[in-house]
Amino acid sequence: MSTILLFDAGNTNTKLCLADDQGLGEAYTLPTRPANTADDWGLKIASILRREEVDPQEVEACVISSVVPPLDPLIKGMADRFLGCEAVFVPRDLPLDLENEYARPEQVGADILAGCFSARMTYDEENLIVIDFGTATTLACVQGTAFKGGLICPGVLSSASALAGGTAKLPKVDLTVKSDALVWGTSTDECLNQGFVFGFASMVDGLVEKLSRHLDNPFVVATGGLARTIAQVSETIDELRPDLVMEGLWMAYFNR
User: Fold this and answer.
1) Which one of 19, 91, 134, 256 counts the least CB within 10 Å of its CB?
2) Where is 253: in which H helix or E strand?
3) Residue 224, by phi and psi: left (phi above 0), alpha (psi -120 to 50) or beta?
4) Is 109 annotated as a binding residue?
5) Reduced to 3 DSSP states, what percent helix, strand and coil does the chain have, rounded to the nearest 5?
6) Model pTM?
7) Among this protein's residues, is 40 annotated catalytic?
């Protein structure tokens, strides 16, 4: 049974997951710090492998979606020294069966393409919108087997951090969903909570509605760290798939 190590390297965090031809294992999240060394990453990976009781020599390949170029040689160096395996980057080394109709295809994030590929392989609907709640909130449009383009919006946590850093009296935002119905806040904490949770849900609902004028009756899939929170109050998200990018990497490798 082939074992691979999946990396979803984002601007804020890097998500890792062991997988085999039967599916995904447990996921781990580490902060993305490109200034760290390949050895630092290797020691962290070694700790995860020990916890999972996997011998480093059992790892056949590292399959990577990365939007942080300085991190790429570190992962490659780690794979070579600590695991003795190849580092395969999507879509550069492992093409995805998805047409990229972006004006400048090289500018599309690997995570967006992997998520769209996974959604395309999973759902039968002709038109898809894949929403990723990461450092930025992105909406990617898929029609048939083609990635058509999308939208890039502020991220939930990055917006909360910017607000807290730019004000003297506003506390940290609690993003727990208190109720599925919007009410006005009667304290600063409640105002922030309702504003962020329902504000971002309304943003994506409104954008999906407008995109639907160009993409008829789309099926909407949400992924990313804050997807579960926003999906609870969104009126347009049809399904929640927190590991959509990982699933895309897994499908690309074992279906190649």
Assistant:
1) 256
2) helix 244-254
3) left
4) yes
5) 40, 25, 35
6) 0.93
7) no
Does 28 appear as a known binding residue?
A: no
Q: For residue 96, give both structure tokens.
A: 């995805």
**Of 55, 93, 97, 111, catalytic:** 111
Reported as a single tens digit per residue, the pLDDT across 174-208 is 888 888 889 898 998 898 889 999 999 999 999 99
Collapse the DSSP code of 215 into the 3-class scheme (helix H, G, I; strand E, B; otherwise coil) and give the result.
coil
Non-local (6+) Cβ contacts of 203 within 8 A are 137, 153
| Sheet order of strands, 59-66 included | 23-31, 13-20, 3-9, 59-66, 86-89
Of 76, 68, 83, which Cα lies nearest the Cα of 18?
Answer: 83
Is residue 255 a known part of a binding site?
no
Of the listed ranges 40-44, 139-143, 166-170, 181-185, the one predicted with least confidence: 166-170
Torsion of CA 33, 38, 42, 48, to 10 degrees: 20
13 is in an annotated binding site: yes
